[in-house]
């Protein structure tokens, strides 16, 4: 409606004004799984896989030329292996959508959904293997943070002689090395980036120089890969950082993420209500991922109690 002076306002001509529809969805970048990107992975040809792990080392000794006492006897020792099991468990989700929505959308809806599902699978997997959150009962090996704590491989943040984050991570690495393992990877949450960048030497110069590996994504610290878990699975209350030998954390991939289109199924929601796809002109994609998990903790030279060694160590928050 024109104003009293006869001028046409913008609100009067909204239907005529040019409008640009941005053909892009604003979204965050897909976050990868720290476990899938760094752990040792094997392909499982069956639902259960067995792997031998060294459980006892041979013990040798000096032998004299005596023919009368025990010093002249060659020592008898055993070597033993334990069987490590990988049992594949299933992650799955079904995403329904109305056929009219698919037909009328300006975007590839399934193309948008798939990476979000893969990211969610990775977050659930990371939470289970790093912290034990909803870890399947068949995965009898401990998650990495609880396993490190149970073995005594913990270092409280700020408790070192040099009270800074760099020393905390270095001390945790030392615990792993004392157990006979080499540290090949470190893990933490996104918030640790600023703390690392803020580290300064006695002259006020930065001591953490952010280095990107050849993959263009993975950072490094003390020469090992630094993985920042950015998919929401990191538990800050349980751990500030985790370090260890990533080759000893094992994932068995029985079935990579597979997708199946459903158009005649009846789905039951969590609240018990039913959704009849055919009756409501809907289709759905079913996503399935099957994976197993285990920690190889072979007995190391110099250790007599395998329960007190673990290939990972954790920097615990100062409050803990």
UniProtKB/TrEMBL annotation:
**Cell compartment(s), UniProt:** Virion
Q: Which SUPFAM superfamilies does the entry link to? A: Major capsid protein gp5
The main place the protein resides is virion
User: What are the transmembrane regions?
Assistant: none
Entry's InterPro entries? Answer: Phage_capsid, Phage_capsid-like_C
Domain (Phage capsid-like C-terminal): residue spans on this chain: 20-298
Task: State what protein this is by name.
Answer: Phage major capsid protein
């Amino acid at each position: 409606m024109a104003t009293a002076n006869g001028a046409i306002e913008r609100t009067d001509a909204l239907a005529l004004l040019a409008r640009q529809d941005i053909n892009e969805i604003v979204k965050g970048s897909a976050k990868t799984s720290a476990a899938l990107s760094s752990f040792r992975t094997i392909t499982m040809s069956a639902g259960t896989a067995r792997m031998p792990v060294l459980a006892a080392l041979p013990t040798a000794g000096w032998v004299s030329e005596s023919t009368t006492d025990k010093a002249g006897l060659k020592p008898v020792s055993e070597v033993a292996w334990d069987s490590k099991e990988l049992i594949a468990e299933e992650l799955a989700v079904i995403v329904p959508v109305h056929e009219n929505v698919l037909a009328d959308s300006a975007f590839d809806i399934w193309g948008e959904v798939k990476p979000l599902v893969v990211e969610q699978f990775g977050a659930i997997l990371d939470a289970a293997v790093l912290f034990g959150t909803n870890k399947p009962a068949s995965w009898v090996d401990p998650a990495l943070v609880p396993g490190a704590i149970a073995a005594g491989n913990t270092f409280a943040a700020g408790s070192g002689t040099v009270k800074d984050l760099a020393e905390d991570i270095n001390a945790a690495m030392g615990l792993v090395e004392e157990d006979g393992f080499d540290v090949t990877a470190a893990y933490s949450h996104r918030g640790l980036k600023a703390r690392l960048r803020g580290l300064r030497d006695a002259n006020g110069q930065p001591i953490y120089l952010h280095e990107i590996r050849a993959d263009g994504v993975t950072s490094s610290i003390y020469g090992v890969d630094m993985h920042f878990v950015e998919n929401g699975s990191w538990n800050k209350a349980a751990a500030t950082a985790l370090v260890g030998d990533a080759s000893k954390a094992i994932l068995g991939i029985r079935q990579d993420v597979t997708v199946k289109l459903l158009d005649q199924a009846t789905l039951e929601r969590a609240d018990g209500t039913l959704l009849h796809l055919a009756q409501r002109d809907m289709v759905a994609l079913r996503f399935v991922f099957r994976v197993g998990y285990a920690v190889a903790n072979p007995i190391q030279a110099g250790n007599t109690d395998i329960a007190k060694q673990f290939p990972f160590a954790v920097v615990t928050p100062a409050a803990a």
